[in-house]
Amino acid sequence: MMKMIVWLWIVFVLTATCVAADAPGFKVTKKYPVPGDGGFDYIVFDGSSNRLYVSHGTEVDVVDADSGKVVGKVEDTPGVHGIAIVPDLHRGFTTNGKNGTVSVFDTETFKTIKKISVPEDPDFVFYDRQTHRVLVCHGDAAVITAIDPDKQTVVGKIDLGGGAEAAVVDGKGTGFVNLEESATLVSFDPQALSVKQKWPITGCKTPTGLAIDAANSRLFIGCRSKVLAVMDATNGHVITTLPIGERVDAVAFDPEKKLIFASNGGGTVSVVRQKSADEYETVGDIQTQPSAKTMAFDPKTKRLFLSAAELQPPATPGGRPTPKPGTFTVLVVEQQ
Hints:
Radius of gyration: 19 Å
Structural class: mainly beta
Distance between the termini: 45 Å
Mean pLDDT: 93
Strand order of the largest sheet: 1-30-27-26
Largest sheet: 4 strands, antiparallel
């Protein structure tokens, strides 16, 4: 039975990278090896410092985006998921899933300043410039926690009624968050910390990644049912769905080139072109590496960065594949 599971896993890995046509002009141009072992989750690009913050085991590795050099580490972040950077304060925030805390660290020294207790299962986190708040999405606790980055204290929470995945804000006073289990999109007020609307994501199961075209009020939702859903952010209407790869986790939007990117754990980045606010077409897939499901986008250089590692078959039937020690890397994708 175990041999059969290993064989099926190998077949999946080999076939997942060969399903769709290649997206023209895009390819992996560099690989930055990052020392250390352990699992990984979000990768974040900070344009103010040209650095990547990469979750990795019980630490965050800080990597120069041009050279790939590891310039520092934020340590003691057990079960780290996400990272948010507040450039004007030279502060960073990590979500530590194993002990229900958020670490506050200095982005110049990478030393931890404080740990803030938050509800269970803190995961995705981002900085909202308009409200000057750090917003933490929680899975099991089914809330968004708001943190004042100046005072480094919790200022309130939003009860969502379901586990929160990725979230975005439109810069006009409204935020949006995916509820994974119910395939629901919640709009919320990040200042008043209240829910505005709840909409079903028609044609989507298990939404994960989320990006926004604020100018046209369009949301791009990555769904584990292998579709990208395009939603009107003003009324929750799903305009269309387009095919994407296996196990999507992150979505990014380039408003200048009108391209949407969905990174998939099967080893691809699916690319969709926005022809108009209501018209979209599939461009193809960028071949990356199995496990490369989280992604960061540099809007200036148009580079994509993805965390990846070689995977080992599950240790037990029904378990998850594990990263092979010493194989963790950051992939750089560019358009030639």
